[in-house]
């Protein structure tokens, strides 16, 4: 049932892709254990199609409650029918059981080896309102626009969808009993055309089909680009013994030499979507996104504050040749925190600098819980450029002074794990609650209880000296400058930082350890943001620029 990709296992950790599990968890995971015993460990398992079935939940309960455990980090797509929507409560993705994670409705996930994996859950729907188990033209449009809008975009490593792309069989080898002119999703075809994945996995048709690789460029008219391999996988434990597991290992695109990346396989075919004449109409309707920079937000914010200041990149009468700022890094996919992104909840933004901005935390631990975020797309502190680091430090020092004036000390932490954009959490703790040593002890004690190795690092050390770009980690910085660091090797509790600060030993608000339980109305958020802007104004160093 296992098919090994012909690329070999060189240069990156091998991974597994799987078709419809349909609730046969024991069959799948026993098979994975057997494979790992024979072939060595795999980095992750990607499941497309129906993860849950119509069978009773007894087997799933054993995994959900921890009686049984998946032997490998497993990532799954969401529901494809109304019956299984109940299992996927959080549209943004969540942990379903230990080692089993729901990716979410749509987005991009970066594996530990650096692989960029784009995912789209559900089946196609052209109706409004869109069912909870479907994706719409708008979903596909936003994914394509966010990912393809930069001139540097070359493609993605992996695309995960449940439906096949319509017309995928054009110019290719036989797809068996599946008529690709009738079956599948035209929206997925459009997405695959735009994203140019090196691998595209799908399921739902209960058969195995490995299409010949197809090219993503027009010969003699465009520069050579990498080829795409489409693999449809069968359902787990099917009686016909069709392949439902596929092992592959590829070096992330961003680490590859261009000549090696665009090397064409000998059996490469024409692109099945380009010449069909029937590509999903959405692909032709997407306009080139307008160039949005962070500058637009200076006006929005200062209009509310009743004053204006100049922002980098705007024309200035005092300088006939204004210096053009370096364009901030762009996100590889939809991002809730890139300031130029339409996804940003702008009413939460409370201050904007040249390279960073401050925003109230959604579902904050307290009314003045804020985030320091880079304007451009950086995943972690380790990846920040020198000028961004300088402004982050400036914001940290300013916030310490601001909170000290209000009888509070601030604690900062970052979790570079299952996150796409750097979020430096800044939580003020009233001086009357506890001492800095109490906070430090609380982090160390709770880390020990959860078997997390939290190491103290020198006060003036740089996180970049300890963690490499792409490495997963958690660190907390106290108001004294002391830092505690944990290198994440496998699993890590996503709410750990909040749980410690919310505990009885510090803020004594244990019911607020999960931000999702602390959400308030947009009107209340706007009131808090307005109040913070006014209070912070005397400390606002950006007004001096």
From TrEMBL:
Stated name of the protein: CWF19-like protein 1
PANTHER family per UniProt: CWF19, CELL CYCLE CONTROL PROTEIN, CWF19-LIKE PROTEIN 1
Cwf19-like C-terminal domain segment(s): 329-433
Encoding gene, per UniProt annotation: CWF19L1
Family per similarity comment: Belongs to the CWF19 family.
Residue span, Cwf19-like protein C-terminal domain: 450-542
Pfam families, per the entry: CwfJ_C_1 (PF04677), CwfJ_C_2 (PF04676)
Organism this protein belongs to: Equus caballus (Horse)
Gene Ontology BP term (one): mRNA splicing, via spliceosome
A GO term from the CC aspect: post-mRNA release spliceosomal complex
Region (Disordered): 266-285, 305-331
Gene Ontology MF, one: RNA lariat debranching enzyme activator activity
């Amino acid at each position: 049932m296992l098919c090994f990709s012909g690329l070999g296992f060189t240069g990156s950790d091998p991974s597994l892709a799987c078709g419809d599990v349909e609730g046969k968890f024991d069959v799948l995971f026993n098979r994975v254990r057997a494979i790992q015993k024979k072939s060595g460990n795999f980095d992750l398992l990607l499941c497309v199609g129906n993860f849950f079935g119509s069978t009773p939940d007894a087997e799933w309960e054993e995994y959900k409650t921890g009686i049984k455990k998946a032997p490998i980090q497993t990532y799954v797509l969401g529901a494809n029918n109304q019956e299984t929507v109940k299992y996927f409560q959080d549209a943004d993705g969540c942990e379903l059981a230990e080692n089993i994670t729901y990716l979410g409705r749509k987005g991009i996930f970066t594996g530990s080896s650096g692989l960029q994996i784009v995912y789209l859950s559900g089946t196609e729907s052209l109706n409004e309102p869109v069912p909870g188990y479907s994706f719409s033209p708008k979903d596909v449009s936003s994914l394509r626009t966010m990912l393809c809008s930069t001139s540097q975009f070359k493609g993605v490593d992996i695309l995960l969808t449940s439906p096949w792309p319509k017309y995928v069989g054009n110019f290719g080898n036989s797809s068996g009993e599946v008529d690709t002119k009738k079956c599948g999703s035209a929206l997925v075809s459009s997405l695959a055309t735009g994203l140019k994945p090196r691998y595209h996995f799908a399921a739902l048709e209960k058969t195995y089909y490995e299409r010949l690789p197809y090219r993503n460029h027009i010969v003699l008219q465009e520069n050579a680009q990498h080829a795409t391999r489409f693999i449809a996988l069968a359902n787990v434990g099917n009686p016909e013994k069709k392949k439902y597991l596929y092992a592959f290992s590829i070096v992330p695109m961003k680490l590859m030499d261009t000549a090696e990346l665009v090397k064409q396989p000998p059996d490469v075919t024409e692109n099945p979507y380009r010449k069909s004449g029937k590509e999903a109409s959405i692909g032709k309707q997407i306009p080139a996104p307008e160039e949005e920079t962070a500058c637009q937000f200076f006006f929005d914010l200062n209009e509310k504050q009743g004053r204006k200041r100049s922002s980098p990149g705007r024309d200035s009468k005092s300088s006939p040749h204004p210096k053009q700022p370096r364009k901030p890094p762009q996100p590889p996919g939809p991002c809730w925190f890139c300031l130029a992104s339409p996804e940003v909840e702008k009413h939460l933004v409370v201050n904007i600098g040249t390279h960073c901005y401050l925003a109230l935390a959604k579902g904050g631990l307290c009314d003045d819980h804020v985030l320091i975020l880079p304007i451009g797309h950086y995943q972690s502190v380790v990846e920040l450029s020198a000028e961004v680091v300088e402004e982050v430090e400036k914001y940290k020092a300013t916030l310490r002074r601001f909170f000290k004036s209000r009888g509070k000390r601030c604690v900062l932490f970052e979790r570079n794990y299952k996150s796409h954009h750097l979020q430096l959490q800044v939580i003020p703790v009233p001086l009357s609650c506890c001492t800095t040593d109490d906070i430090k002890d609380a982090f160390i004690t709770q880390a020990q209880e959860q078997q997390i190795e939290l190491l103290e690092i020198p006060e003036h050390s740089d996180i970049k000296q300890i963690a490499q770009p792409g490495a997963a980690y958690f660190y907390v910085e106290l108001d004294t400058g002391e830092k505690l660091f944990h290198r994440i090797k496998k699993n890590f509790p996503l709410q750990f930082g909040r749980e410690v600060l919310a505990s009885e030993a510090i803020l004594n608000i244990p019911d607020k350890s999960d931000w999702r339980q602390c959400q308030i109305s947009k009107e209340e958020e706007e009131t808090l943001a307005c109040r913070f802007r006014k209070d912070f104004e005397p400390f606002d160093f950006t007004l001096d620029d």
